[in-house]
Amino acid sequence: MTPMILVTGGTGLLGSHLLLELVASGRHVRAIKRANSDIAMVHKVFSYYLPDPDALFEKIEWADADLLDFGAIGDALSGVSEIYHAGAVVSFYPNDHKAMLKVNIEGTANLVNQAIENKVSKFCYVSSVATLGRAENNGVSDEETYWIPSKKNSVYGISKYGAEREVWRGMEEGLNAVIINPSVILGPGFWQDNSGLFRLVWEGLKYYTRGVNGYVDVRDITKSMMALMDGNHFGQRFICSADNLSYQDFFSLIAKSLGKPAPSVNVPPAMTSIAWRVEAVRAFFTGSKPEVTREMATTTSQVYTYSSEKLCKTLDFRFRPVEESIREICELYLRDLNN
Q1: Is residue 97 part of a domain?
Q2: Residues 6+ apart with CB under 8 A from 277
Q3: Which of 162, 176, 289, 328 has a CA positioned 20 to 30 A from the CA of residue 120?
Q4: How far apart are CA 312 and CA 300, in angstroms?
Q5: In what order do the strands lie in the sheet with 80-85?
Q6: DSSP per residue over 189-228, as a string?
């Protein structure tokens, strides 16, 4: 009998690609979603890679369940032997902080507890490089670069660190779990949020900061997750990041593929500090979300670099070049724009 796999966060960028990879490999998959969630984007992602997306899309079994609803999670785990936990709130807006902390930490604790109670044999948690000790580390971060409390840590990072601790606690209680820590995820389709950087460049982004960050293709993350689970690499965490690029180089690559001018105005840290304060005032009086927040300004001004040597050696894995990923995503963006 084919094992049942449960996926959380299936309606997001990473989750939709994970669902595609799982059903394409013949796995029996159940995906949980909130009752009001739209699964149309999942179908859209399938259509990027398949001539007949319906054939595989219809193999997904959907179940309505909120991560904060302990009972609903228990019901969704009926018959499940493996869990891929990719569900999380991702936001750098202050108004979302309270909900993000609750969902990401308490929701993960619920899932871990139910996994242990239901004797789930395998558990993969999608964490983030934001849980590493990057705030005070000027060198290259790896799996041994541990969290350091700092004002530079985003609330998102704090929420993922708290959630990751719940998974480590589950391991101590006997759960076979592995943690993957992706850097900035690159993928198509979610042009208003996860993939919004491509849209911003298309719309004429003029500015860049001196910061550096890691980037990885969403398909490399899903393949790594499945390989780690299939290889039973439990009790460990693995950074998943293809390359480290400055924001200037990253945006320039996107601009080149979209046929747009590359951002040419460098914004120094002092100016980003002013920008988020001005935006906070504007947002207060207009009731809208600020275009720049303090966390955004802090993050984009820092140099964060990561090593995936452990993952590559463990899985004999090779990442897609970031430039290739950007080119393919831009082609899909232009295709969507013209349809």
Answers
A1: yes
A2: none
A3: 162
A4: 27
A5: 61-64, 28-33, 4-8, 80-85, 122-126, 177-182, 236-240
A6: S-TTTTTHHHHHHHTT--EE-S-EEEEEEHHHHHHHHHHH
Provide the mean pLDDT of the chain.
Answer: 89
Any idea which residue has 């009926």 for tokens? 78
The set of residues, in sequence order, having a beta carbon less than 8 Å from that of 308 and lying 6+ positions away, is: 238, 239, 240, 241, 242, 319
Q: Is the dihedral of CA 195, 200, 203, 208 positive or negative?
A: negative
Tell me whether residue 337 is in a domain: no
Find the CATH number of the domain harbouring 69. 3.40.50.720
Q: For residue 214, what are its two tokens?
A: 């890691």
| Type of residue found at 122 | K
CA distance 113 to 70: 9
Write out the residue range of the structural domain in which residue 111 sits. 4-186+214-242+305-323
Quick check: 120 and 77 in contact, CB under 8 A? yes
Cβ-count burial 248-258 (b if 16+ within 10 Å, e if not): bebbbbbbbbb
User: Is residue 297 assigned to a domain?
Assistant: no
For 240, the 3-state DSSP assignment is strand
25 phi-psi bin (left φ>0, alpha ψ -120 to 50, beta other)? alpha
- The single-letter code of the amino acid at 99 is A
Tens digits of residue pLDDT in 23-62? 999 999 999 998 888 899 999 999 999 999 999 999 999 9
- Nearest Cα neighbor of 304 from 136, 156, 175, 160 is 136
pLDDT in the model for residue 136: 58
